[in-house]
Amino acid sequence: MTAATETNSINVKFIAVPPDLRPKYVPLRGDAAAIDPVARAEEALSKLADNFERWLGEEVDVLLRTWAELRKPPAHLPGKHNAFYLAAHDLRGEAATLGYPLISRLAGGICTLMENFAPEDMPYDLIDQHVLAIKAAIREKAEGNGSETARALVQHLAKIVAEMTEPSGT
Length: 170
What we know:
- By secondary structure, the chain is an all-alpha fold.
- The chain is built from 5 helices and no strands.
- It has a domain at 53-165: Up-down Bundle (Four Helix Bundle (Hemerythrin (Met), subunit A)), CATH 1.20.120.160.
- The protein has helices spanning 37-71, 78-97, 101-116, 124-139, 148-165.
- Helix 1 runs antiparallel to helix 2 and helix 3 packs parallel to helix 5 (148-165).
């Protein structure tokens, strides 16, 4: 058998994790026996959830600030583009985690446009539509899947981005 046709086989075992791990919890001895780590973890998550909206607002503020700076002449400075791209990239990654997947998709559209166009060819009007949609989503607190109108807007913008960035001839 040649090296090109040789294959390695790996034995893999998948373990199904029960959705509720409380039955697996074994209390500790002594004073620590009263501590329920699952309850403590759930409490910590609920405290963090209270901060999600604030954290998301801070990320959107950075996006808006860098967008405003990018739109000031001269617009084609690499530092301005990089700062705005990084703000959109961060928002794309964090918004879904914080419970705002529509905002994540909109920020992803901005990233896709910036990755596919040179600064002098950038479709700034389309990016502006994404930024305005993000502002509206924050204002309306469009958590989760948002409203039907919000979903339709995000899908429409995503379709335009896809059409503009797909290779010609496909």
